[in-house]
Recover the amino acids of this structure.
C-alpha cells in the first residue's frame, strides 16, 4: 500500500491522497524518487535556475537521451544538459552564453541539425504566456510576439496558430498552446515542511510553471524552516504547499547563478559566481575540457553536499550578498581614462547618444535594454539624460524595472542591479506591462545580422552554426519602437538574413561605430544621417579605415547596393562630435574591466 508521500509503484507518480511533500535527503534523492525516463521536466527560472536539481537530473539520466526539458535559457551550468546526454529535446528561448557578454557556445554549433539535442525555440514572453495558459487552465494564450514575419514560427504548427481576429476579419490573432510539463523544478529561499515555498523577486517567469505542471513541483530551498516562520510571511509564499510533491534542502542550490533572499528567515543571499561562469565558457571551447568540466562539477560529483565541498568555504563565503559586516569589499580595477576610445566604445557611445536623442524627441519614458552592447548603450544613455535632468526608466526582461545599475558590474542580470531597482517583478510585468502595453517604451537591441528592412537574426550563421536565439528580443521588436546597436561589417549588415529572428517593422534607427542610420518608418530605406570617422578595430589599422561615409557604407556594410534595397548616405548628413572625456569616463566607470572594450 502506498503512503501519502510515496510515489505509486505502478506509475511512479505521487499517490492521490497526499498531505505533506516527500522530504528528500537532497536533490539526487528527490529526482530519483519522482522523475522517470521520457518525462518532461521544467526548470523554473527566476533570476536563476534550480541548478542543484538540474545537476541531479543530469547524473540520474546521463546517456539516456530521454528527457524533454523546458527552461527560459540554456547557459552556464545548464550546459551539463548537453554534456550528460540526458536530454532528447529542449524547449527554450536562448542557447549560448550570457557572461561576460552574450555569445555562441561551441557545444551548440550544430544545434540546428539536432545536435546535441532537438530544440524548440520561442521568444521569452511567448514561452511564458504558454506556461500562463497552462497554469490558468486555458486552451490557448494570445500573444503579440512571434509575428508572421519571423522564422521562429517554423515547425510549430501544433502549438502556434494564426486565426482571424473575431472582431476584425482583416486582422489575425496568434494563439499559443499551453506548455504543460510533468514536473516543475524550482529553487526558493526557504520552505516549511508542509511545502509552502518562499521566493523573492525578481521572479522571471514567476510561479506559472508551478501551476502548469501536471504532477506538481519538486522544490529545493536554501533552508527548510519551522511552519511558524513561514506562517509569519504569507505574502512571501510563491508556491503553495498543495503544488509541492517533493522538497529538499540545497544550500547554494542556484550556484553558479545568484539568489536574492531579502534576508528572510535568516537566509543569506549570494551573487553570481563570475569566475565559475567564466570557467565554463573557457572549458566549453574544446570538447575535451568541456567533458573534464562536466566530470569535475556534475558527473563525478556524488551529491550536492560534495559539490559544496568542492567549492570550498572561502569561495562560498565570497559570494554572500549583501556582504556580512566586516567582510572585505571587492576591489575593482580603476577605469583607465587616458586611452583613446576603442571601436566598441565608440559604438556604445554613439548608441547612447541616439537613444538620448530619441527620448528627447519622442518622449519615451522606458528603455528595455537587451543584453550586449545594447544594454551598455541604454545604461549610458540613462546617465547622460539624468545629467540633463531627464529621468528615464531602464528595465531588463527578467523583472528589473527602474534600474540604477551598479557601476563596475556589466552583467545585465546581476543581483547588485536588483538591489538598486525601484521595482522588481517578472517577465510578464516587464515584457508585457512595461513594454508591449507601453507605447512610450523604446527597445534597445543588438544583432548578429541585420538587413536593410531592420529585420534581425540572432539564431543562425550562414554556414548553419548556431548563435543564441531570441530571448526577449522578438517580443520587444514585435511591440515597440527599437534602436539596434551593432558594429558594422559586411557579415553583420547583410542584404538578406540567414534567419529572421526578430521583425524589423518597429526598428527606426540602427547605430554603427561610424554613425547612425535612420528611416521615417517601415517600408522606407535607411539613410546614414550622422558620421564619425571609425577608429581601428577588429583587425583594421588606420590605413584600412574608410576615408568617408560613402566608403564606410561600401566597405563596412552589405547595404550599399541599391538593387538590394540598401541604405544611402543622407544629403543632410551631420558630423558627430568626437567621443568626449565625460562619455568615456561614464562608460569606463560602468565597465572598468573592459568587457565591452
Amino acid at each position: 500500500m502506498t503512503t501519502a508521500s510515496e510515489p505509486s509503484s505502478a506509475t511512479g507518480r505521487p499517490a492521490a491522497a497526499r498531505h505533506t511533500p516527500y522530504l528528500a535527503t537532497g536533490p539526487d534523492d528527490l529526482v530519483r524518487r519522482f522523475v522517470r525516463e521520457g518525462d518532461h521536466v521544467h526548470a523554473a527560472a527566476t533570476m536563476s535556475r534550480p541548478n542543484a536539481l538540474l545537476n541531479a537530473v543530469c547524473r540520474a539520466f546521463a546517456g539516456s537521451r530521454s528527457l524533454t526539458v523546458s527552461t527560459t535559457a540554456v547557459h552556464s551550468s545548464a550546459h551539463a544538459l548537453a554534456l550528460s546526454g540526458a536530454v532528447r529535446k529542449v524547449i527554450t528561448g536562448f542557447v549560448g552564453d550570457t557572461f561576460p557578454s552574450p555569445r555562441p557556445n561551441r557545444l551548440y554549433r550544430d544545434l540546428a541539425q539536432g545536435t546535441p539535442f532537438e530544440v524548440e525555440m520561442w521568444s521569452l514572453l511567448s514561452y511564458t504566456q504558454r506556461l500562463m495558459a497552462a497554469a490558468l487552465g486555458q486552451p490557448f494564450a494570445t500573444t503579440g510576439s512571434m509575428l508572421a514575419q519571423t522564422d521562429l514560427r517554423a515547425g510549430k504548427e501544433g502549438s502556434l496558430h494564426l486565426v482571424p481576429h473575431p472582431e476584425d476579419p482583416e486582422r489575425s490573432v496568434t494563439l499559443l498552446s499551453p506548455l504543460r510539463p510533468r514536473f516543475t523544478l524550482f529553487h526558493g529561499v526557504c520552505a516549511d515542511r508542509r511545502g509552502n515555498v518562499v521566493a523573492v523577486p525578481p521572479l522571471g517567469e514567476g510561479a506559472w510553471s508551478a501551476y502548469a505542471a501536471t504532477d506538481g513541483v519538486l522544490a529545493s530551498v536554501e533552508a527548510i524552516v519551522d511552519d511558524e516562520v513561514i506562517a509569519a510571511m504569507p505574502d512571501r509564499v510563491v508556491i503553495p504547499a498543495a503544488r509541492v510533491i517533493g522538497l529538499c534542502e540545497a544550500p547554494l542550490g542556484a550556484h553558479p547563478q545568484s539568489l536574492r533572499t531579502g534576508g528572510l528567515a535568516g537566509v543569506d543571499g549570494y551573487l553570481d559566481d563570475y569566475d565559475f561562469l567564466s570557467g565554463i565558457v573557457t572549458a566549453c571551447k574544446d570538447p575535451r575540457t568541456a567533458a573534464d568540466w562536466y566530470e569535475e562539477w556534475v558527473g563525478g560529483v556524488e551529491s550536492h553536499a560534495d559539490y559544496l565541498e568542492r567549492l570550498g568555504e572561502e569561495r562560498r563565503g565570497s559570494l554572500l550578498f549583501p556582504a556580512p559586516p566586516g567582510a572585505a569589499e571587492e576591489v575593482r580595477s580603476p577605469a583607465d581614462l587616458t586611452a583613446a576610445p576603442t571601436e566598441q566604445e565608440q559604438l556604445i557611445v554613439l548608441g547612447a547618444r541616439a537613444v538620448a536623442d530619441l527620448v528627447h524627441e519622442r518622449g519615451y519614458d522606458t528603455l528595455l535594454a537587451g543584453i550586449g552592447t545594447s544594454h551598455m548603450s541604454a545604461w549610458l544613455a540613462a546617465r547622460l539624460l539624468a545629467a540633463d535632468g531627464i529621468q528615464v526608466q531602464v528595465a531588463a526582461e527578467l523583472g528589473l524595472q527602474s534600474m540604477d545599475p551598479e557601476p563596475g558590474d556589466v552583467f545585465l542580470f546581476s543581483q547588485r542591479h536588483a538591489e538598486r531597482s525601484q521595482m522588481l517583478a517578472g517577465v510578464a510585468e516587464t515584457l508585457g506591462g512595461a513594454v508591449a502595453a507601453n507605447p512610450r517604451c523604446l527597445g534597445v537591441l543588438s544583432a548578429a545580422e541585420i538587413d536593410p528592412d531592420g529585420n534581425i537574426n540572432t539564431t543562425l550563421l550562414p554556414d548553419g552554426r548556431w548563435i543564441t536565439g531570441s530571448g526577449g528580443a522578438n517580443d520587444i521588436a514585435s511591440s515597440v519602437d527599437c534602436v539596434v546597436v551593432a558594429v558594422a561589417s559586411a557579415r553583420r549588415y547583410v542584404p538578406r538574413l540567414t534567419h529572421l529572428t526578430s521583425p524589423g517593422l518597429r526598428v527606426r534607427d540602427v547605430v554603427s561605430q561610424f554613425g547612425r542610420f535612420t528611416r521615417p518608418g517601415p517600408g522606407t530605406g535607411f539613410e546614414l544621417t550622422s558620421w564619425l570617422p571609425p577608429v581601428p578595430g577588429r583587425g583594421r589599422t588606420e590605413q584600412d579605415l574608410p576615408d568617408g561615409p560613402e566608403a564606410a557604407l561600401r566597405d563596412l556594410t552589405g547595404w550599399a547596393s541599391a538593387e538590394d534595397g540598401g541604405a544611402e548616405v543622407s544629403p543632410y548628413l551631420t558630423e558627430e562630435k568626437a567621443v568626449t572625456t565625460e562619455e568615456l569616463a561614464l562608460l569606463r566607470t560602468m565597465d572598468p574591466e573592459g568587457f565591452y572594450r
Summary: The two ends are 65 Å apart (CA to CA). Residues 343-362 form the longest helix (20 residues).
